[in-house]
Amino acid sequence: MTTPSSPGAFATRHRSWPWCRRCSGIALDLGSARTRAWTSGRRMILDVPTVTFPGAGAAYPIQRGTIVDTPGTSRMLDRLLGNRLPRFGRPLLILTTPVLGGVAYRAEARTAVEILRPRSVLTVPAARAVAMAADADLAHPLLVVDIGAHLTEVTLLADGAVFDARHTALGTSDLDSRTAPARITEAVVAMTTTMLEQDLTSQTLDALQRGPLLAGGGALRPEIIYPLTDQLHAPVRTVPAPHTAAVRGAAKLLQSAHTHPSAMGYARR
Fold it and tell me: Which CATH code of 3.30.420.40, 3.30.70.270, 3.30.2350.10, 3.30.565.10 fits the domain covering 137-238?
């Protein structure tokens, strides 16, 4: 017999995702240049510049993958999402984080998102979110290259977890007449080569031979993709809509998490 507090009872009586108000959720990707969010019950991804206006001019609260202005980040999130959330109930929030952001980034991010009154905040490395968006086979080692506007990351996933990672404070916004796209290509190749040299297992090599997964705005730049394929001597696979891959992967995780009793605040009697 199923008791009212059991997971089975919850699954049979709650409304299907994403229309259940108690199951409201937010998938959030805080980028240095763009902030992207997906909320339950809405079909489109919100995509806005990561900027706030504390006075006469604009300020940028996230720089090179680091939150430098936590109150400013909160104000930006309130402006973006404050009026889009249900009046009652508190959302489950899944937040992507830079792979090497560390404890400091997660602490600042959790403080910033409190403005949205989440009942729980779950963080996921951006590389894993990208893999989820691409429906990648995580049973095998996977190399994820995320080329953003201000930060480029190379991450090796093994069994779905971060096994190794490198990053550089260089992105597509740095490209101009003095900085050629080749700079990003060279940086990715150098980081991948270092990972290969320092890996005492064969996982990095296996992942490279299968082909790196490419995401971020840089994945839309042919002048980066084609030389990268040649220099890595590997088939580079671009994620569909690579600039929104991280937030879409977080949204997939959110949809998976919403039926879990612990995420919904249910417990056995």
Answer: 3.30.420.40
- For 55-103, the three-class secondary structure string (H helix, E strand, C coil) is CCCCECCEECCEECCHHHHHHHHHHHHHHHCCCCCCCEEEEEECCCCHH
pTM of this structure = 0.85
Chain-centre distance for alpha carbon 119: 20
Query: Which residue is it, tokens 């580079």?
Result: 236
DSSP character string of 230-265:
HHHTS--EEPSSGGGHHHHHHHHHHHHHTT-HHHHT
Decide: 207 and 142 in contact? Cβ < 8 Å: yes
Task: Give the Å distances, CA to CA, from 164 to 185, 204, 249.
Answer: 19, 9, 20
Taking domain 7-128+246-264, whether its CATH number is 1.10.260.40 is answered by no
Q: What is the pLDDT of residue 158?
A: 95
Q: Which residues of 200-216 are buried (b: 16+ CB within 10 A; e: fewer)?
A: eeebbebbbebebbbbb
| Regions of the chain where pLDDT drops below 50 | 1-14, 16-19, 263-269
* CB contact set of 269 (below 8 Å; sequence gap of 6+): 3, 5
